[in-house]
Amino acid sequence: MQLISHLLIITVLFNYSCTKAKIEQQNIERNNILPKTSLERNNEYTFRLPDLEKLTDKSPILTTEGFGNENEESRFIVGDIIILSANEKLSYLNLLPKTTEDDSYTIHLIIQDLKDNSFKIAKQWVIDLDNSDSNILTDFYKKNKVEIAKIFKNENLSFLSDKISFNSYDAIKNIQLKYNYENTEQKEITEITILNKKQKISNIQISKKTLCPECDSLVIYKGDYLGSISLANNNKLLILGLLEQVSLSPSALHIRFVRL
Q1: pLDDT tens readout for residues 175-232
Q2: Which of 194, 209, 226, 236 has its CB 3.0 to 4.6 Å from that of 55, i.e. a possible disulfide?
Q3: pTM of this prediction?
Q4: What is the dihedral of CA 25, 29, 31, 32, to 10 degrees?
């Protein structure tokens, strides 16, 4: 009889403990004290392009333009890109190649319409940095996501909800690029036509300001594709690497996306 009494007491205490814990958990949830879930758990993603300098190694057109170092490796002044949205419009942060000795970098938020390849620069930031920053664009995005989210809301854009996959230079078959040049000594590119099995896919032009969103009047004199990316909606985007002529220094590499 005494054993039964002890068991009943233990059962009552256990049920009370569970009930108390449940009530406390509900109060916590009601007061939003629970930690916020991560981006991945919210099905939000970003996609950072692979090292742009390494991507140029696959292109014979671009590697011949690099300034060789003592190991005869090609070098370019490169930036960085993180894609934030990719539905009907592609939105990405673009850290521009640093071609000056100023202690600052320029970052653009670019919104590109994938139907006609038109674009606009939604926001520009000039960031003062020192050489100790090794993860500039990733850290910048984390610090400025609230502001970027407001821009997305005004533009009716949503962040990535699916992962993007990268396809290397060697994996792209049957793609050809045809260049039109201005008749000058610099051979400035005025238009690039993209062909697949000799069938025209698209063309982008200097005259319509679609060749390089951030280049303005800078001279683009070489270009090649660096690979492609596959989106969740089965769209593929060709990654173009375009070289800006920079005097007395390695070429600056600019990136352009074109829907295949």
Answers
A1: 888 888 876 666 788 888 888 877 787 877 766 666 777 777 778 888 899 999 998 8
A2: 226
A3: 0.77
A4: 130
pLDDT in tens, 35-51: 333 344 455 789 999 99
In this predicted structure, the answer to whether residue 23 has a pLDDT above a threshold of 60 is no
Counting every residue written for the chain, the total comes to: 260
User: In sequence order, what are the residues at sequence separation of 6 or more whose Cβ sits closer than 8 angstroms to the Cβ of residue 11?
Assistant: none
Q: Which amino acid is at 75?
A: R
Contacts for 195 with CB less than 8 Å, ≥ 6 apart: 175, 176, 177, 178, 201
Q: CA-to-CA distance for 250 and 64, rounded, in angstroms? A: 11
Burial track 19-45 (b if 16+ CB lie within 10 A, e otherwise): eeeeeeeeeeeeeeeeeeeeeeeeeeb
Tokens representing 162 are 């699916």
In the three-class reduction of DSSP (H, G, I as helix; E, B as strand; rest coil), residue 245 is classed as coil
